[in-house]
Amino acid sequence: MEEEAGVRRWIVDITRWRPSPDQFDAAAALLPSHERPAIARFVKEDDRKRALVSRLLQYSLVHHVLRIPLHQINICRTPEGKPYLQKNCSAFPNFNFNTSHQGDYVGIASEPICLVGLDIVSISKPQGETTTEFISNFSSYLTDHEWNCIVRAGTSCEVLTEFYRYWCLKEAFVKAMGAGVGFGLHRLEFHHEHWTDISIHIDGEVTKKWGFWLFKLDEMHLASVAKGHPEGAVSSYKKALSTVSVTEEQLHSTLESPEEAFTLWTVEQLTESME
Question: Per the UniProt record, which EC number(s) apply here (predicted)?
């Protein structure tokens, strides 16, 4: 079913990949030349690895799902940085994907009809400040309801995890829309039942056109997936979509279908699939 649907949830643990300089360059050489400067500009090795693996995931996934030869894949970006496929002639007119990376993981999610956003967070303890001081830096991005849920979560570790759950969901939504960093996260308010049946209120109004899922990747990392109606895309990203019309049945089917767990890939598997 997954092969037909164009739905993918892939993730890579970059700590398992320790390439030599030659191995790194060989992997980068699989990408179009215009993608490589964006990788080379990073100073730290881990940042370069994340940037490289993010792009390997994009090209490998498009090649894998849509059967487009690698040299014919043309991934563009909107002014806000949202990647999209130029000249998508596949059976999935709205095929779209989103990547995220933080900490040990780089991931990608794709959908054939609805918008998809992915965000990965690393639950790292604040350095040089208390948990309360740390999350206070982000209070303007949270609603009163969210703030109260966070500070009442329990221990400092539980408070921190609760904060990152909300933050992860907000980022996934904004990324799915294709919005830039200036989008007002305080306009979004999430409600849930023990972090299932998650719903969103936008400017105080609940919407049934979006679905959200949270995943615990390990003790220190969370991932969230947002799926929604294409009409929710920002204008620059709407232009990249083939259609923003989705039937109620298609939307309901997408939002009600169970969310698949992530498939763990190694960098070696990705590069082999591209050669």
Answer: 2.7.8.7
User: Could you give the CA distance from residue 262 to residue 264 in angstroms, rounded to a whole number?
Assistant: 6
Q: How far is CA 270 from CA 17, 54, 58, in A?
A: 12, 11, 10
**Could you give the C-alpha distances from 61 to 11, 67, 72, 179, 227, in angstroms and in order?**
11, 9, 14, 23, 18
Distances (CA, A) of 166 to 3, 19, 172, 192, 195: 31, 35, 10, 10, 10
DSSP 8-state class, residue 153: S
CA gap 270, 61 in Å, rounded: 9
Give the side-chain half-sphere CA count within 13 A for 178.
Answer: 24
DSSP 3-state of 251 = helix
Torsion sign (Cα): 44, 97, 234, 175: negative
Q: Read off the tokens for 81.
A: 């940085």
Q: What value, to the nearest 5°, has the Cα angle with vertex 212 and ends 112 and 84?
A: 35
Q: What is the pLDDT of residues 15-62, one digit of tens each?
A: 999 999 999 999 999 999 999 999 999 999 999 999 999 999 999 999
Mode of pairing for the β-strands spanning 105-111 and 8-13 = antiparallel
Token representation of residue 46: 């881990």
Tens of pLDDT along 82-93?
Answer: 999 886 666 787
